[in-house]
Design goal:
five-stranded mixed sheet, alpha/beta, 38% helix, 313 residues
Length: 313
């Protein structure tokens, strides 16, 4: 996914002279072909994320579309004020490409785990927050960024994720996708984002083997949220579960709960959130190791859904 995203910057730059790449302390050879072909639109800066954001904002004010790339924790926590005031306050078309969203950098520990990134970026006015499922969907997102007038946060997975998206489903920023339709009403509605959608589809297969009907919605854009589709599909569901590789505070689950609070009030259904714990990671290992600790692997998701159905919540 990451390499596809970066390659798309070069491809888009060939098509649109407004596209500029700005990296922050990444491999000197990253996008080397673009640097050689169009050096005036390729910049690799040092460990100074706040300055990089200001630099990108200045370019955007001059009519460019800057794509800024570095590790997710650095592009969110280290320069949050600049993102808020330089980009969002002026509603500039800068694209923040965040390497290693969620628990991707599990071997490096809590300093590199972007487990609250969706929450803090979602809180900013004018910011668009995205988390696609695979490399092919990343291509569709990247093409859509050229015409989107607002700043965008692009959360990247580890790479090598299974391709579950399809051209047949279409793609538009702010429009969720029904990946699996339920056979009838009263089913379990599973709402996920990013690379978790592949795991949720696996969980749905496990549930189907037990004759449990499920519907799966992939929310590649957490903000703006596709409220119309979610409200329509929630009306027919007997159970609503959100699944995300993010702390349970402020992410996709919170966005769905906020929507229901605003639109349905006391009539809203209970939303069960499956997410990372509200704590710093105390373990190192692989991405799936940390997901298992939080109950976010397919078999655990299926078990949680089954348990919630039995409990009637």
């Amino acid at each position: 996914m990451r390499q596809t995203c970066i390659n798309m910057v070069h491809e888009l730059a060939r098509e649109d002279k407004r596209v500029v790449f700005v990296g922050s302390d990444l491999s000197p050879g990253l996008l080397g072909a673009m640097k050689q072909e169009m050096p005036e639109r390729h910049y690799m800066e040092g460990v100074m994320e706040a300055n990089v954001i200001g630099m990108a904002a200045g370019m955007a004010l001059e009519g460019f579309i800057p794509f800024v790339n570095t590790i997710a924790t650095f592009i969110t926590r280290r320069c949050y004020e600049q993102v808020a005031l330089d980009l969002c306050l002026h509603d500039l078309p800068v694209r923040l490409i965040a390497n290693g969203g969620g628990t991707v950098y599990a071997p490096l520990g809590p300093t590199h785990l972007a487990v609250e990134d969706i929450a803090i970026m979602r809180a900013l006015p004018n910011m668009t927050v995205t988390a696609v499922s695979d490399a092919e969907e990343m291509k569709r997102l990247m093409r859509a960024t050229l015409d989107w007038p607002h700043p965008i946060y692009i959360r990247l997975g580890k790479g090598g994720d299974p391709v579950i998206s399809s051209d047949a489903n279409g793609f538009a920023i702010g429009k969720a996708i029904v990946m699996r339709h339920a056979a009838g009403s009263g089913h379990a509605l599973l709402i996920s984002c990013g690379v978790m959608t592949a795991r949720v589809l696996e969980a749905a297969d496990l549930l189907a083997a037990k004759d449990i009907d499920t519907e799966v919605i992939h929310v590649h854009t957490i903000k703006p949220l596709d409220g119309a589709l979610l409200l329509e599909r929630i009306d027919n569901a007997g159970l609503v579960v959100t699944i995300e590789e993010h702390t349970h505070i402020g992410g996709l689950g919170s966005a769905v709960s906020d929507l229901l609070d605003e639109q349905q009030g006391s009539r809203r259904p209970v939303v069960r959130k499956l997410a990372l714990k509200d704590s710093f990671a105390k373990n190192y290992g692989l991405q799936d190791d940390l997901l298992r600790i939080s109950g976010l692997l397919p078999d655990q998701i299926a078990a949680s859904v089954q348990q919630a159905l039995k409990a009637g919540t």
